[in-house]
Amino acid sequence: MRLRVYYGWAKLNKVVKREALTVIFLNDDPGPRYNKDGYDGVSRYINVAYSRVQTSEEESDRVHANRMYTVYSIFMDDKYVQGSLERALQVNYDSDQYNVSKKERELIREKLRTAYLASHPGYREPHGVQLFIDFNY
């Protein structure tokens, strides 16, 4: 069974209080509780902008997981992002470089940008944000 990866923006509530670009990897078959690809479970936590099938390298990591989902978040108030949509999208773009083709990464970036701007009308990029920071730390 091919498992999916979901990209989207976190739904803010009493538990999730910080805005974030969120990537969720499905680690196991969701079973009869959710629909076959796990979208129902994931859509409770994020506004899904894009989904894709995991690569074989990504699927091999699931043997180490003890949860149904693996979640990665890029918080908009992080000191490297500083509220910049373009910086958050660039971090996500760079994170996928070894598993996703350039064409699909561009599509993911555009879908995430469109979803964010739809929920944030009048958004402007903050001033003074350096867009290219070396993350080799």
- What is the strand arrangement across the widest sheet? 3-1-2-4
Identify the overall geometry: globular
Helix amount, in percent? Answer: 25-40%
**Strand fraction:** 15-25%
**SSE-based structural type:** alpha+beta
The pLDDT mean sits at 86
Elements, N to C (H/E): EEHEHEHH
Name the poorly predicted regions.
Answer: none
Number of helical regions? 4
Total E-strand runs: 4
Radius of gyration: 15 Å
Distance between the termini: 36 Å
> What does the largest sheet look like?
4 strands, antiparallel
Give a structural overview.
- This protein is of the alpha+beta class.
- Helices cover 28% and strands 21% of the residues.
- The chain has four helices and four strands; from the N terminus they run ββαβαβαα.
- Strands 3-1-2-4 form a four-stranded antiparallel β-sheet, covered by helices on one side.
- The longest helix has 18 residues, at 102-119.
- It is globular and about 45 Å long.
- The mean pLDDT is 86.
Describe the structure using short key phrases:
four-stranded antiparallel β-sheet; about 140 residues; alpha+beta; 4 strands
Structure described in brief:
It is built from 4 helices and 4 strands, in the order E-E-H-E-H-E-H-H. It is an alpha+beta fold and 137 residues long. Strands 3-1-2-4 form a 4-stranded antiparallel beta sheet, covered by helices on one side.
Show the helix and strand layout.
Blueprint: E1 4-10, E2 20-26, H1 39-42, E3 46-53, H2 56-60, E4 69-75, H3 85-95, H4 102-119
Antiparallel strand pairs: 1-2, 1-3, 2-4
Helix pairs in contact: 3-4
